[in-house]
């Protein structure tokens, strides 16, 4: 599964890079998402595989755990923000098709990507610093396939109320705000589709046709919606 994820995302990124017909904002963000997924998988899978092969006997030091937690939160936060950016991109493409190239230009795409990275870094850094400054009694090694933050906090010999509050706050920002942007964008997208006047347009762009293409978990739905959107851009 790890090799499938890495190779699949690498193929997407390389294909977008070498195929000049895909030099559009939509595929730019898709390639960025694929590269992020490569790093995201690489921050978790190696330790998990090592623990699997050693039957859970591979220790991880606190420093290693803190490093993994930082990259997990950083890459996960960038991932969520980038999904919101992709939803905004499709919102502009469908609801304002004639102004799309003026609004979503290449400088803006780069700024949105850099902004996603900066926001993810700013959200993950304080949490990582708080974890690194916790006193950890005699337990300097952790025998787990993944360094989950609540588990690491339970090993500390100090009050972790502030740390837990920071974790919940950052989790709320990383998950709920991008989800709100994505949901709002697709509400406007569906509304724009329903306003298509022609009967053929309604038949081709109706929600029933859209939903018939969707299968799998919500994350897969979002990806499939993102791939299907050029059809609606053409209809517009």
Give a short overview.
The chain contains eleven helices and two strands, in the order αααβαααβααααα.
Would you write up a description of this structure?
The chain is mainly α and 236 residues long. The protein has a domain at 60-197 and 218-234: Rhodopsin 7-helix transmembrane proteins (Rhopdopsin 7-helix transmembrane proteins, Up-down Bundle). The chain has eleven helices and two strands. It has helices spanning 2-18, 25-42, 45-53, 62-95, 100-103, 106-132, 149-154, 161-194, 199-205, 207-212, 218-235, and strands at residues 60-61, 141-142. Strands 1-2 form a two-stranded antiparallel sheet. It is globular, with a radius of gyration of 21 Å. Residues 205-221 and 230-236 have low confidence and may be disordered.
Secondary-structure topology with pairs:
Blueprint: H1 2-18, H2 25-42, H3 45-53, E1 60-61, H4 62-95, H5 100-103, H6 106-132, E2 141-142, H7 149-154, H8 161-194, H9 199-205, H10 207-212, H11 218-235
Antiparallel strand pairs: 1-2
Main location: membrane
Subcellular location: Cell membrane
Transmembrane segments: 27-49, 69-88, 108-134, 168-194
């Amino acid at each position: 599964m790890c090799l499938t994820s890495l190779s699949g995302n690498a193929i997407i990124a390389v294909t977008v890079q070498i195929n000049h017909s895909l030099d559009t904002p939509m595929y730019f963000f898709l390639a960025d998402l694929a590269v992020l997924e490569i790093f995201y998988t690489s921050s978790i899978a190696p330790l998990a595989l090592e623990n699997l092969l050693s039957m859970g006997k591979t220790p991880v030091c606190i420093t290693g755990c803190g490093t993994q937690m930082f990259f997990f939160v950083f890459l996960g936060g960038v991932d969520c923000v980038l999904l919101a950016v992709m939803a905004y991109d499709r919102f502009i493409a469908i609801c304002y098709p004639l102004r799309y190239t003026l609004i979503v230009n290449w400088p803006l795409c780069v700024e949105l990507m850099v902004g996603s990275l900066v926001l993810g870094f700013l959200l993950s850094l304080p949490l990582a610093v708080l974890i690194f400054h916790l006193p950890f009694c005699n337990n300097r090694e952790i025998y787990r396939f993944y360094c989950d933050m609540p588990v690491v906090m339970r090993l500390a010999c100090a009050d972790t109320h502030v740390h837990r509050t920071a974790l919940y706050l950052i989790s709320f920002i990383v998950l709920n705000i991008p989800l709100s942007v994505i949901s709002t964008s697709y509400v406007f997208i569906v509304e724009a589709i329903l306003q298509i006047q022609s009967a053929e347009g309604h038949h081709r762009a109706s929600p029933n046709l859209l939903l018939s293409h969707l299968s799998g978990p919500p994350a897969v739905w979002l990806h499939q919606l993102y791939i299907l959107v050029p059809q609606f851009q053409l209809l517009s």
